[in-house]
Specification:
Shape: globular
Number of strands: 9
CATH architecture: 3-Layer(aba) Sandwich
Number of helices: 6
Distance between the termini: 38 Å
Helix content: 25-40%
Radius of gyration: 17 Å
CATH class: Alpha Beta
CATH superfamily: Glycerol-3-phosphate (1)-acyltransferase
């Protein structure tokens, strides 16, 4: 009989392993928005694909500006989402629960409150279950509703291992290099009707797909 491992234990092991791995990694950062050196005086929606979570976590652990009020991760209320929330808290980040499939109204409300408090939100718009590199509409809707700009973040790996998961989750190999590019802010103006909204969703999706593999 398979005995499930309690989430706090899993989170503790994941945090320990990630910290050990991060000590060996080299980070190259191309910050075209100036976010890490001259950040804006308002919160942003840090947006990146689900399989780049480790790379973006490393980047913002090392280069997140001291003047910011903190990062809150938007994650699903599933078991995997709760585990991710526990891990992110181990790295000093908070979490709010919700997704496009589960509790979408709660997710938008919680995210809007988070932005109103001045904290940034980290979003993986193809999570929690994909399809890979398909931008779900939540991040565009949230940007339109709150006025918070989207900060597109890309990551590539000199050497990595890909898990056999829906997203091909990337785990950088020890002593490898992670290259992170932060693109300029993208604002999503209010739209009226399905077609203009879909056009805006596709625009942001194409920006994020640049260099995705």
């Amino acid at each position: 009989m398979k005995i499930p491992i309690p989430e706090p234990w899993l989170a503790a092991v994941a945090i320990f392993l990630a910290r050990c791995l991060f000590l060996t990694l080299r980070l190259r950062l191309d910050d075209r928005a100036g976010f890490t050196v001259n950040p804006p005086d308002h919160p942003v929606l840090i947006t990146f694909w689900h399989n780049r979570i480790l790379a973006i976590t490393l980047c913002f652990l090392r280069r997140y500006h001291a003047s910011r009020k903190g990062v809150v991760v938007l994650t699903s209320p599933s078991r995997d989402g709760r585990l991710l929330a526990a891990v992110t808290r181990g790295f000093g980040m908070d979490a709010v629960f919700g997704s496009n499939n589960k509790r979408p109204a709660q997710a938008v409300h919680s995210a809007a409150d988070t932005l109103a408090s001045g904290r940034d939100i980290a979003i993986t718009p193809d999570g929690p279950r994909g399809p890979r590199y398909h931008l779900q509409p939540g991040v565009v809707f949230l940007s339109q509703k709150t006025g918070a700009p989207i900060l597109p973040v890309h990551a590539s790996f000199s050497r990595c291992f890909r898990l056999k998961s829906w997203d091909g989750f990337c785990v950088p190999l020890p002593f490898s290099t992670i290259s992170v590019r932060i693109d300029p802010y993208e604002r999503c103006p209010a739209t009226s009707g399905d077609e203009p909204f879909e056009a805006e969703r596709l625009r942001i999706e194409e920006i994020l797909k640049n260099e995705a593999n």
